[in-house]
Prior knowledge:
By secondary structure, this protein is an alpha/beta fold.
Amino acid sequence: MNRTFPPLNALRAFEAAGRLGSFKEAAAELHVTHGAVSQQVRVLEEWLGAPLFERHNRRVVLTPAAKTYLAEVGPLFEQLSQATARYGLSEAVFRPLTVNAPATFVLRWLVPRLEHFRTEHPDVEVRVETSNEPVEALKDSYDIVIRGGPDTFYGYSMRPFLSEERLPVCSPALLQRLPLRTPEDLERHTLLHTSSLPRVWPDWLAKAGMPLLRPAAVLTFDHFYLTLQAAVDGMGIAMGPTALVSDDLAAGRLVAPFDWPRLPSRSYCTYVADAKSADDLILLFCSWLEREGDAFAGAGR
């Protein structure tokens, strides 16, 4: 007998979206992104040659034919789950842990420490995407979003895990060419800025008692990781967050000519949708982040 089966991943996405009435909620249940659910539904629509949902701005509504189809397909997934359970097989389905975080944080703090997590939990696949979009503006559903804080977002729980301060940093070679004995010596140097952080240097100079200091030059980058790389390359002096430059300071790629004053900075926090707040895998990763943050604080960096 020749059997006709639709793409099963696409069918699963359709069943979840149709049952929940939302691509976003289906993505959360299936532990994939909103875009992945939308793509799988399109695959099934193309395979069937007919639309399954009517799109109304942010809402989706099943077509009359799709309602009938869902009524027949839905129970099959429940029967499959029950049959699997009766045979003593695990109902757990492998899924990756999806994390969204700012690029500079990922490059300079998370990536160097991810091997610790992989060693402790080799069976967990972590997928990291970078962006600076606000939590509520993210189009896809992630297990964990890392941003500055603490902030409050409706529908999300927040946990701080890493604190830091900001202070001037530069390459040792630059310091040899143009020594920095006092903050006033900064007027002989190039100050490195990031366009999204225009107040960092003015605020530090004001705290150092030199609000009117004019440096020899100013160089501005659109991404903070470029600013820090320029400091490593000896192009000037950057305001370095202690958490993100700690490894560079320890390795001697950067030095901090002044330990005071230190500019307060926002903490790094995890933001998790309330619907996922009890997820064991998410809690595992958040707890690991907090242990790494405590270790950083305990090292006095």
